[in-house]
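Researcher: Go.
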Amino acid sequence: MNKPVLLFAPFKGLTNKAFRNAFARHFGGFDAMYAPFISGLGQDRIHPGKLTDFIPANENLAPTIPQVLSTDPREIILLGKTLEQQGFDHLNWNLGCPFSRIANKKRGCGILPYPEELDGMLGEIFREIPIKLSIKTRLGYYNPREIFKVLEVLEHYPIELLLIHARIGTQIYSGEADLEGFEKCLQSTYLPLAYNGDIIHKARFLEMQHRFPKISSWMIGRGALINPFLPSEIRGICYKDSEKRLRLLEFHQELLAEGWLSKPSEARLLGSVKSVWYYMAGLFSEPAKVFSPIKTSGNLNEYLQALEHALQQPFALDHEVESYFRLGIKHLGDPGD
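Model: Structure:
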């Protein structure tokens, strides 16, 4: 069985450089981290402010892969050339974002029902792009059959890696991941594939690895946001509870320090850490008991008290993490409510 290559999925508004670096420093386990997508770059010159989340390259503690959301080949080519100048050799194209405000404009997974248009864009991109291009996508936008015509198109191009989230766009993140749909993709193409979807804990990863023994690359998103120790656990590294609590404390201290360095308001800083805890509360047996004091904290001192309280709580078992993953997150309400 192939040694797993673990990839950290991007989350817009959450997994920025400060988060990724803190994660790499205190938890580790990922071979590469995908930066949240950037868009609206233009065709002539990219404003440096668009690139600060991953440039300069040497400020990323883990190998970082920039991601772009676009349907403009000239924009993607320009970004590729700019990244090459900055020392990057790999760009990821987001063809998977499921949110209707994006997909209805034929961006993200909204382009999947139109393989002819995708073919035209890829033909133009690969005539000039100087670095590797991977694609993150889904099984389709409206139905999982859409992926097969997309695969026929992609096979004409040197795609570095095709990361497939095993859902369709209209599901967003609801329902079960479609393992049969992913298996059909695996059987239908010679493209290098990576699996993404519902890797919640180590036991689930091992199930997936057994089912898809040809897959060596695995993208993990919400599972690692809930349990940041998951990638290390997959690699056989297990920490004592006391060590976990210390690493969690130091991780959050770094997020606060980085937040102050960027000089947001206290309210914005609290909003950022509440968004982190919206997921990470599921690491504990009683997520609501952990998240409620954090969510209602109105200033930094109240948050620090809630953080201390959270880190005293018992950790969840696998079935409790899974329950939170499937049911608990949305029941907490939005972190900023």
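Model: DSSP finds 14 helices and nine strands in the chain.
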